[in-house]
Fold this protein.
Amino acid sequence: MVTWDWQVFCKETTSGDIISGCFGRGGDITYLDWLFSAWGWTLSVAVFALVVALFVGSLMGILRTVPDKRLVFLGNVWTELFRNIPLLVQIFLWYHVLPSLFTSLRSVPSFVLVVVALGFFTSARISEQVKAGIQALPNGQRYAGLAMGLTLPQTYRFVLLPMAFRIVIPPLTSESMNIVKNSSVAFAVSIAELTMFAMQAGEETSRNVEMYLAVTALYFVSAFSVNRLALVIENRVRVPGMIGAK
Amino acid sequence: MTLDFSFLSWGVVSSFVIKGLIFSVQLTLVAMIGGIVLGTALALMRLSGKRWLVAPAAFYVNTMRSIPLVMVILWFFLLIPLLLGKPLGAEVSAMVTFTLFEAAYFSEIMRAGIQSVSKGQVHAGYAVGMTYPQTMQLIVLPQAFRNMLPVLLTQTIILFQDTSLVYAIGAYDLLKGFEIAGKNFNRPVETYLVAACVYFVICFSLSMTVRQLQNKIAIIR
């Protein structure tokens, strides 16, 4: 029924010649070269967005647990805002809307805009988990810290956060895997990542199935590696005698 | 640049946006109902303890959950015509895709729901002479469903947001309706902003409703 043609990956992208060794030399680019470069784009979007999301998400999650009601409100508004608009629409807002409202954003490369969009979108989810992690700790810990004479920031830094972050590692792991998957939405603003590659290379070569299979496999590998990496981190930071410790 | 929303009239909304909104809601409902039915079946397979049922269900769920939705949409859009011999159109293809994709996520929720029902309930069912299907249908599933209702609805809100991804195959959904209106009146910036507001209002009010429901259910239990 279906005949496979895996040699398509060794073709040069403009001339269509099959190149021996499958990796282009000189100015030649094969589909395999393109595939790996697309994988690189997917991973860089995901990694940079994850850094943004972890930073902003933790900050907003912490704000939602402090005594000051105004900061709690700010954290809540942030979370609801970025959680209730579809990612694709958020990416369009960053890519189409904001640069035309604020001209200074026009020189910002679209890669950065997508990273910020994906990062802020995920930060809403991370803020939920960080908040839940902090609230999972007994209130006595906070009071103990304050009673010892620590300031509120010190209480967070030395008492609450070290335990809260350990508690939220499993949900953060699945968020990190989600960010790899969600980076696929960047195709909509022409970032040359895996999904974009699958669509374009599939169309150019008419070998959609092979292209899709390769891309799907790379998504698998990426998400699985994130999962393993997170497991290593989880084991490394485990506190003996505490939650989840062996 | 200054924003100008004056082109937005009831005429524009009814001729471009409503059609898309109806499709988005339709897609959400079809995928929700189909996904919950299929997902419950998958969950029962995974909890059956029979290896020939557990393995395929686990494989299906894990595969679906590790591929980006956009890729799944593209895969089905490519494969359905190959398998059926004729194209189904982006809209029908999206409905099939979302039902099968969401089934994986709903099955994980239903699995947790079924496991949340205490073992004593199952034993009680057997003790009064019920068969396995009867116990499941009359005792376990109603409780599992009720316990998981807020989570199922939250997943449905996520599903509604995800319907915007049919952009990849060009189906006419809510976002597309706004996009076409924006192109026609040369006001893309304004229409994207309005689209974001509409999605926000719908999703935010739904999640508030779910939160209220959660409190209600929690009190009764």
Summary: The longest helix of chain A spans residues 31-63. The radius of gyration of chain A is 22 Å. Chain A has one domain: 6-236. Chain A is about 70% helix and 0% strand.
